[in-house]
């Protein structure tokens, strides 16, 4: 259903603008989260490539216990990785399968990223149109007030 926003009262147009701004903020936040996830998966692939290198076996590394706590360790088997497949489940995979898993996730996130970007563009264009109508309505109100002031003289 389409609404001709030029027929709405200024207060209604302003409310519509607030709604579109809120939606735009929501989608922008979602886009940022997708970007963070994409970077995390790309980092996983880079780490797998680094550890699965034939020179990496026996190499000392720092193993994260939390986001800010690490312990020293050594690479024992550089072709076995525990991959987080979601909701706290981990699956042991070799380097090739781990990279394929992360690449498939990256492909899906790229599709989602493009969809959200498209939605953001549409919402931005609509918001610009709403702003244009608001300016026109404000100009019309000023014109009417000036005419009323002129008529009272």
UniProtKB/TrEMBL annotation:
Record's keyword annotation contains Chaperone: yes
Residue ranges that the Swiss-Prot or TrEMBL entry lists as coiled coil: 92-119
InterPro entries for this protein: PFD_alpha_archaea (IPR011599), Prefoldin (IPR009053), Prefoldin_subunit_alpha (IPR004127)
Keyword Hydrolase: no
Pfam families for this protein: Prefoldin (PF02996)
Domain of life: Eukaryota
GO molecular function, one term: unfolded protein binding
GO cellular component, one term: prefoldin complex
Signal peptide residues on this chain, from the entry's feature table: none
GO biological processes: protein folding; RNA polymerase I assembly; RNA polymerase II core complex assembly; RNA polymerase III assembly
UniProt keywords, alphabetically: Chaperone, Coiled coil
Gene3D superfamilies: 1.10.287.370
Entry's family note: Belongs to the prefoldin subunit alpha family.
HAMAP family, A to Z: PfdA
Full protein name: Prefoldin alpha subunit
Originating organism: Wickerhamomyces mucosus
């Amino acid at each position: 259903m389409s609404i001709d926003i030029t027929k709405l009262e200024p207060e209604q147009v302003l409310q519509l603008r607030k709604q579109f701004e809120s939606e735009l903020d929501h989608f922008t936040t979602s886009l940022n989260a997708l970007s963070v996830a994409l970077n995390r998966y790309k980092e996983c692939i880079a780490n797998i490539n680094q550890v699965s290198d034939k020179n990496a076996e026996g190499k000392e590394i720092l193993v994260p216990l939390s986001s800010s706590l690490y312990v020293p360790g050594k690479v024992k088997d550089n072709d076995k990785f525990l991959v987080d497949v979601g909701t706290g489940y981990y699956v042991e995979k070799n380097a090739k399968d781990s990279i394929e898993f992360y690449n498939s996730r990256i492909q899906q996130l790229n599709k989602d990223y493009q969809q959200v970007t498209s939605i953001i563009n549409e919402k931005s264009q609509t918001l610009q149109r709403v702003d244009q109508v608001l300016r026109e309505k404000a100009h019309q109100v000023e014109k009417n007030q000036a005419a009323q002031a002129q008529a009272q003289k």
